Task: inverse folding
């Protein structure tokens, strides 16, 4: 699939996916379903990227570089409520104290997002789960202020060497949590006394309560709706 020429074409493509089961999506893109979905969490995101013509892959650019649009698939239950936090980007422990909000990766990543909800109800077999209605979104002034407040509080604590105090309980909309493929992954970090440590990588995540507000009323293709 070639990349979309503009946002209108991107949104049209995304709307054409709404209502498809994951089996139907796999047929459309000629990509087999994973034999064990529990071990293939990234399959859905990769499949939607392929169906929409995303080009950014894992590079430090938006998924649709020419449009400046990031793609986020969002697991939701039957009522369209997000089932988990949404990863935004990794925390750069060495540089976070030297940048302002508008320069941050969080701000850039969330400046323009195509949200694609995907059914993730435990009682629904993986092949039968469906893609929902997309939402092309930029934060409102109120949402921007909300995200900025959390980012400044969390990044300030990290920059002051207080990483051990930064837990997933902090932040109304944005939180920081460990982000690593395994427990052996480590990053270099200096605490508030200047002593160097090796610590787990961290990531910024959006809370489900924040993404639920975004998607309210947009939403889901289900029986009887």
Result:
């Amino acid at each position: 699939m070639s990349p979309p020429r503009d946002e209108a074409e991107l949104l049209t493509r995304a709307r054409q996916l709404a209502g498809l089961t994951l089996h139907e999506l796999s047929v459309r893109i000629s990509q087999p379903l994973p034999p064990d979905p529990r071990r293939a969490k990234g399959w859905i995101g990769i499949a939607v990227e392929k169906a929409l013509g995303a080009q950014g892959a894992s590079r430090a650019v938006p998924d649709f570089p020419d449009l400046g649009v990031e793609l986020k698939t969002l697991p939701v239950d039957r009522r369209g409520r997000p089932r988990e936090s949404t990863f935004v980007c990794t925390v750069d422990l060495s540089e976070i104290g030297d940048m302002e909000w508008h320069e941050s990766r969080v701000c850039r990543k969330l400046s323009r997002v195509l949200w694609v909800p995907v059914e993730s109800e435990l009682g629904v077999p993986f092949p039968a789960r469906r893609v929902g209605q997309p939402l092309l979104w930029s934060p409102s002034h109120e949402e921007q202020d909300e995200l900025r407040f959390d980012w400044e509080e969390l990044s300030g604590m990290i920059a002051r060497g207080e990483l051990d105090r930064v837990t997933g309980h902090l932040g109304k909309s944005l939180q920081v949590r460990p982000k690593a493929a395994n427990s052996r992954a480590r990053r270099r970090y200096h605490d508030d006394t200047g002593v160097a440590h090796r610590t787990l990588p961290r990531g910024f995540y959006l809370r489900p309560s924040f993404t639920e507000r975004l998607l309210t009323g947009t939403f889901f293709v289900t029986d009887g709706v």
User: Anything to note?
Assistant: The chain has one domain: 7-215.
